[in-house]
Known about the structure:
Elements: E1 3-7, E2 21-27, E3 30-39, E4 42-48, H1 63-72, E5 77-86, E6 96-97, E7 101-103, H2 125-138, E8 147-150, H3 159-165, E9 171-173, H4 176-185, E10 189-199, H5 211-236
Helix pairs in contact: 1-4, 2-5
Bound molecules: hypoxanthine.
Amino acid sequence: xxxxxxGGTSLVGTKLLEVAKKREVNTPxxxxxxxxxxxxxxxIVYIPRHGKDSNIPPHRINYKANIRSFKELGVEEIxxxxxxGSLKRTIPPQSLVVPHxxxxxxxxxxxxxxxxxxxxxxxxxxxxxxxxxxxRSLGIAIVERGVYFQTVGPRLxxxxxxxxxxxxxxxxxxxxxxxxxLATELGLRYANISTVDNYAHGIIAEEALDYKDIVxxxxxxxxxxxxxxxxxxxxxx
Length: 237
Ligand code: HPA
């Protein structure tokens, strides 16, 4: 069975799929650039969330096309890797978090534009456990539960916004909830690894966050995320 991976800032430049076929897959929602590779005899379909040239900003990502392309290729389980800010002093930058739930109160995408369908969103517990198990067996520290709060990018949050949400969630980011919701709508299993790349605005320091620092921090988690993904793949075989 094929595994789908969507990588963001933390996997830019990943060597995970060095020997991969580049493909463009047409969907009713648009064309998706992706990579297909055989890793340890399993087929892996990798979508770089920010596009071939890493230049699609969060508010322009075509989530529907991305998730639909997995369906077209017969992928049934997806691991999304996302960059997040920490809402807790106890979850410092460089932590890896596998959220068990999420909050996303606006900008919710749907495939059901013209019929009345209400799915109940969920992160896949079995896939989540496989990710956690892979990290554990490698001795890589991983936060096994957490609520992901999705905000609407591209701007970061104000201190007041972070103050409002910090008691209800552990990490804040711009992508995961949209992907998980759309995957649920198509009956695909979705789990997430979030790389903590900064403390959210005002959690520790009052000053503004610098996006360049966030990208640099994300690249530091790449190696551990790659190791965990490879282990998940190895254990599929
Ligand atoms: N807020 C929202 N998205 C993010 C952050 C943040 O602090 N860090 C990385 N992605």
